[in-house]
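sry for the spam today, last one i promise. struct tokens for design, 349 residues
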């Protein structure tokens, strides 16, 4: 049953990737600099979860737990190895239930022996489970995903979340690797991020609405769909704006609906230190193969450098000095959340 569900998720996620939904990233523009000055050579280096990364984007959690997932993970690991990107596997819950499925995840480490690899588990998992997941992959860090809306809409999903806080706290303190707590497409508010900081979390992935929509995926598996919940959650942009004031207290990763280097640049300007890409890269691999995905990613690196050159940005953190223009929808979000929009729009005045 778990393997069937994993394959359903892959199939439905790929169907979604063929759509072109509106993006809140299109509601943001950079203020152009006619005479950009880069004080230092352009660097794509960043650091998250205590890990030094040569590139500020990576392959985010997607799949595992079936033969189809194993083949996809092998392809994604080939892409990661060729491009030098970090990579996260999908949730290892299937392997924790059935050790016979471990190979569908372990193929990532076998393929990319020296790479930065993130294991992934749900917040319902214990410290013992977390240690097992890390050991299966010899992982450099551990993602703990939060997916309450998906579980609630999933026909066979969980309905009890009272142990999540304790599990997160125990794992952060004792698992032995850095922990990233991530959403799965529903975004994070500043209240959530503040709460996670209180549990000892140092890195969050806000993973907002705009990419793979797991409520829609689970609705497609339900006998009676709850379509009125399809747009639940905060967008990635809304999440970044909401959490911006906390970016000096926690490393923020942006994922969810990021399509290209300009979206990445806007996310960096809203406080993200790294970008997670899942459906976008899965679509590249499925549509054009491993070599095609590698070529696109290498182009993205150069295109991001071009954007940095136009803006006079030499390091990722310098995006935080770029003036932005927000449309009225985002200004309304700022007003209602009592966030001064000027902190984004008048940085150099």
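last one done:
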């Amino acid at each position: 049953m778990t393997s069937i569900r994993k394959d359903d998720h892959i199939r439905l996620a790929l169907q979604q990737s063929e759509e072109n939904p509106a993006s809140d990233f299109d509601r943001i523009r950079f203020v152009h600099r006619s005479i950009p000055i880069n004080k230092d050579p352009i660097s794509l280096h960043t650091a998250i979860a205590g890990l030094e990364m040569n590139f500020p984007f990576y392959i985010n959690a997607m799949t595992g737990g079936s033969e189809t997932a194993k083949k996809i993970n092998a392809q994604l690991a080939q892409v990661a190895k060729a491009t030098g990107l970090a990579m996260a596997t999908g949730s290892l819950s299937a392997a924790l239930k059935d050790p016979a499925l471990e190979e569908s995840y372990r193929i990532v480490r076998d393929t990319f022996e020296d790479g930065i690899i993130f294991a992934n588990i749900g917040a319902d998992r214990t410290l013992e489970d977390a240690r097992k997941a890390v050991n299966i992959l010899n992982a450099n860090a551990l993602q703990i995903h939060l997916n309450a809306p998906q579980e609630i809409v999933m026909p066979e999903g969980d309905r009890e979340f009272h142990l999540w806080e304790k599990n997160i706290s125990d794992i952060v303190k004792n698992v032995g690797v850095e922990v990233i707590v991530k959403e799965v497409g529903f975004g994070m508010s500043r209240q959530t991020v503040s709460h996670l900081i209180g549990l000892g979390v140092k890195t969050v992935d806000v993973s907002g609405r705009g990419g793979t929509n797991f409520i829609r995926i689970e609705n497609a598996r339900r006998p009676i769909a709850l379509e009125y919940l399809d747009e639940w959650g905060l967008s990635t942009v809304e999440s970044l704006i909401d959490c911006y004031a906390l970016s000096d207290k926690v490393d923020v990763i942006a994922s969810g609906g990021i399509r290209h280097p300009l979206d990445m640049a806007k996310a960096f300007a809203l406080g993200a230190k790294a970008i997670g890409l899942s459906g976008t890269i899965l679509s590249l691999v499925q549509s054009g193969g491993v070599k095609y995905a590698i070529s696109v990613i290498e182009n993205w690196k150069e295109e991001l450098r071009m954007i940095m050159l136009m803006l006079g940005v030499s390091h990722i953190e310098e995006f935080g000095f770029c003036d932005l223009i927000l449309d009225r929808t985002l200004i309304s979000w700022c007003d209602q959340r009592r966030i001064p929009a000027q902190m984004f729009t008048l940085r150099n005045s």
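Residues 2-26+50-290 form a domain with the TIM Barrel fold (CATH 3.20.20.70). ok im logging off now
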